[in-house]
Design a protein that fits this description.
The chain is mostly helical and 81 residues long. The protein has a domain at 3-50. The protein contains three helices and two strands; from the N terminus they run αββαα. It has helices at 10-18, 40-48, 62-66; strands spanning 20-21, 25-26. The chain has a two-stranded antiparallel ribbon with strand order 1-2. A hairpin with a 3-residue loop joins β1 (20-21) and β2. The protein is extended and about 50 Å long. The termini are far apart.
Length: 81
């Protein structure tokens, strides 16, 4: 969204600027879970286990990733009838 269309609310603008990138724009990402009797602590632990680490302690191994099997079938286009 162009800056001239941002809301006039100063607090909203400051919050957006924290995650703003001059080339890519808004870099904020959010995920929302809505439901009854959900275990917030379990959800947080499960999501935290997905994190790739940090620059000081990376957890992502490109070679290991390259050896993973693709779980999805090969996509095929339907032939025109």
């Amino acid at each position: 969204m162009p800056r001239d269309r941002w809301p006039d609310n100063a607090e909203w603008r400051e919050n957006l600027k924290k995650n703003w990138h001059d080339v890519w724009g808004d870099r904020r990402q959010e995920i929302v879970f809505i439901g009854r009797d959900m275990d917030e602590a379990w959800i947080r632990r499960a999501l935290d286990a997905c994190l790739l680490g940090s620059d000081e302690k990376p957890r992502f191994d490109w070679e290991e990733w390259a050896r993973l099997r693709d779980p999805f079938p090969v996509w095929q286009s339907d032939a025109a009838a």
